[in-house]
What does this fold into?
Amino acid sequence: MNYKNLSLPVKLITTILCIGFSILFFSSIFNESNILFVLIGFILLALNLYFIFNLSSSFKLYTKIFVGLACGLLFGIFASDAASIFYPVGQIFIRLIKMIVIPLVFSSVFVGTASLGDPKKLGKIGGKTLLFYITSTAIAIIIGLTTANIIKPGSAISEDVKVELHANFQSEAQIKIDAVSEKSNTVDLLLNIVPTNPFKAFTEGKMLQIIFFAIISGVVINYISEDRRRTLLNFFEGVTDLSIEFVHLIMKLAPYGVFALIAYVISKYGSEVILTLISYFLTTIIALVIHVFLFNSAVIKIFTQIKLSDFWKGIYPAILVAFSTSSSSATLPVTMECAEKNLKIKPQIASFVLPLGSTINMDGTAIFQGVSAVFIATLYGIDLTLGDQLTILLTATLASIGTAGAPQVGIIMLTLVLQSIGIPLEGIALILGVERFLDMARTTVNITSDLSCAGFVNAKE
It folds into this structure.
């Protein structure tokens, strides 16, 4: 039977029946003392979930993640005693994400920085472009953190749940507490960015030091012989491509990982956690809108001769492609066409500024990381100090340089932001259900910022 040919109502009804059957059957046998019954139930549940996701095989990945979230939510509520068995499955998903973070970060940042070419040859255009991208990213993360601190998404959750969440991740919380003294002032924070032993930074997962080492290496590589430079670049470009393929593979498992993590979280803390997603989603969208319509519009209005109406009309095709593909890189050809034909930006400027922006300018991703970090910290009852938020600012700004212009990579980069301030990575499961829609929204912000930078540099030159 080809499930793809079924109508949507039939698919929905079948999915609901499958979910209901799984809940009733698995919860009824879980309390049996015979381990064989539990094992049989677990296998049947796994097959049933596979059937559900196969039923929705014609849907996009984010739809399957929604199905996984719905299944996990229902299991957590109606089969809370049985849901705890899925904890190891969720942890495997988290470990797979953590496994790819370091190679993806280093290779992407290294290649992105090296693509600038010889710093001496960049001249004024390169300097203005880099200054704009760094400034816009820093402003973006400040907007995200400010919006999150004002709205406080997740704060409505009860103190009892926060305390229990915090207690269950006491070891991670203790790491954060121990690290507060190390981040007591800005000078120490800046000094700790520079690694004394890069290999130790890799083994200990010190992301800021890894990013710093990658940036310096990307600059210095331009001073070695061309053949060796090309060999190194080819290697790390291959590592980047391999890492992105790993991300795609891991995200195929996301519906199962989200199901397991959500089922476990809901069984322990109740559906109250999921309800807070509404405030988180709206907070992120508000921050993205503020950045686009205040910062980017202000740049075009103040520094260029382009009318705002002409700017938004001219970039509209790129916005549509960015929203649908969630990929700055995939949108790049359309972005360049809009810049040259609609905004009348010089081709030599567009060909330099826009490809560079698709690699290192990720304002929407930076906003997403800031809001997500504050939201997840709030859920776990962790109060972020000024030093913590400064760390988020620095980490998210640097991480945006290494965020490949492909769908779903932003969630991987979020892990290093959370790790930098000791927030439990399990909280990522709570936002994956709406992450796809946020990915679409933040990609439009990314390419809008790229085009405003192109307009800015074109006007100054």
